[in-house]
Amino acid sequence: MKKIFYIAEIGINHNGDVSITKELIKKAKDSGFNSVKFQKRTIDKVYSKELLDQPRESPWGKTQRDQKMGLEFSYDEYLEIDKYCKSLNIDWFASAWDVESIIFLDQFDLKYHKIASPMIVDVNFLEEVAKRRLYTFISTGMSSVENIDKAVGKVTIADADVVVSGGRGLKGPENWHLIEDLAETLGAATACSKPVSDMGWRPHSEHVGQTGKPVASNLYIAIGVSGAIQHLAGINSSKVKVVVNIDPEAPFFKAADYGIVGDAFEVVPQLIKKLRAFKNLN
Ligand SMILES: Cc1cc2nc3c(=O)[nH]c(=O)nc-3n(C[C@H](O)[C@H](O)[C@H](O)COP(=O)(O)OP(=O)(O)OC[C@H]3O[C@@H](n4cnc5c(N)ncnc54)[C@H](O)[C@@H]3O)c2cc1C
User: Fold this and answer.
1) Domain 161-281: what homologous superfamily?
2) Given pLDDT bands bounded at 50, 70 and 90, which one contains residue 21?
């Protein structure tokens, strides 16, 4: 069974006060959450001058700017939060609202990024997040399926170091846990062949090849993919290619660096088991 990752949203509910933040973090930890999440905004980048100059009474002053600046933590305050989270063994991360905030967050050794729903159409922003190669959560409120697909494609396959890809040999979407589990074990992105996305087993953002996404990963593992020329066209720039296919005559074996002739339904669970055992040892 898959483990659920619980995130406690602190957002800006800390009122700009580190001691309130610590209380919230402690409550989250005691309630079994894996991580807490904040919002990080460069106020002058995210809001217009016109809005920021508008009057707004708050504990921090008389304008919108005063109120919004009052809710932003400094580097030193985040450092204190970082140390506190480490002492409690709970993760933290933040949804950045602009590229400067992504760069600000780079100063901490974070495992995750979060894309707020208004940002999923900002290609430049998505590419900046993708470059970090961290696990990324995407909020999808008010977004179209097309925009969600594009955003998922941006932050995953294109810049992924390792990609696990599935083809029609997987027989159906109900078997995709094999691809997902292997990908999770390797910290990889998932991808697929064109027919798989055409049949709706996977979103089009995962389709690799001549008519899909190019992949330039260090490792590309293809499971139950025949290796048609149109698929291979998308992975030319990938360094090491591995194929698992039941048919020793499948064209992918000619393009691959390593190949396993075997049934994906037997080979992949074994691979996952061995990799997990290896990871536990190291
Ligand atoms: C103009 C054009 C553009 C195209 N663009 C793309 C593109 O961008 N990307 C793309 O992917 N395709 C593209 N295609 C389609 C392409 O030609 C192939 O049809 C497609 O790549 C095949 O997908 P597949 O390997 O998943 O399926 P299949 O060709 O059906 O291969 C399935 C493979 O799974 C293996 N298998 C079956 N059972 C098992 C098992 N139990 N364990 C392990 N292996 C198993 C089989 O031996 C077989 O090799 C394009 C085609 C055209 C005409």
Assistant:
1) TPP-binding domain (3.40.50.1220)
2) very high
